[in-house]
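Margin note from the TA: students keep mixing up input and output lines. Inputs are the sequences; the output is the structure of the whole complex. Example:
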Amino acid sequence: MRRPPLSNDFSWSKSRHEKFSECLRAYYLYYYRSWGGWEPDAAKDVRELYVLKKLANRFTWAGSVVHETLKDVLLDWRAGRAVDPAAVEARARKLMQDDFRHSRGKAYWTQKYRKQFTGLVEHEYAEPVTDETWKQNFETVRSALSWFFASRWPRISQALKPAQWLEVDAGYDFAHFSLDGLKVFAIPDFAYVDDDGAPVVVDWKTGKYRDGYEEQVLGYALYVAQRYRFPVEKVRASLVYLNEGVEKDVTVDPAALDSFREHFATSVASMRALLKDPATNTPKDAEAFVPTEDLNACARCVFRRPCGREAAVARARAEVA
Ligand code: SF4
């Protein structure tokens, strides 16, 4: 029996906002034009956009391997299973080797692989990346895991009683809440109740500190408060920079939450202004989504070929080299 088609409902997330802010055309291709590209009878250009939008880059890939690995580790501890850090690191290395091979052969165009990874933009566009840089990418993963195992987090998580665990990277189907009647996706990496009865949300970071992360965890705080019925001011939020070995607590107070809601409302209004029909989330024509002039953004973009910027990016790279 053929299942009913999925509908492309409007929702909000921090990553959607970032895409919207970086390039409207990329936002359009990602959230609208590629929709349905998974269907066997999808049009060729839609299918191409869909495959491209799933590609990671080496930085997001390293980050997602760390996140997936820590998720497995935490779930093992939650279930009372022992974890061997050396075996965890070896598994991560093997996973990355397999991913790399799959991506280098561009098998993502023809084969299903694993949900969290399809391929790398560097391979798709034959970017000049040295072996040393790829090795360094694995080193980012290794050092993040190594810092984690030596940090206070193993002790904290292993000491939690069953009732104190809230969730571990629960995924899009589960981790969302409603704000001003809109579905907002906010997936904390780890959420638990501490010994004082306060809910704690934790976000692992593999990159360097940058602005905007605080706002992301405020979204997690709102989510946890709504889902588990805590007063939101009670939530504690932590950003953990695994590669820098730095932890940063984020204040969840009325002023911070007001600022979050204000940004959210402005962001949603800007996105809706580009809809022909907000009720059905139907976008205006492609021309309304103006491509960015910033070639640096294009140099990171998975859509540079269908967007017509592939040659310009290659030229700019050649001039720098
Ligand atoms: S290639 Fe550049 S202009 Fe085109 S969608 Fe990507 S970021 Fe936007």
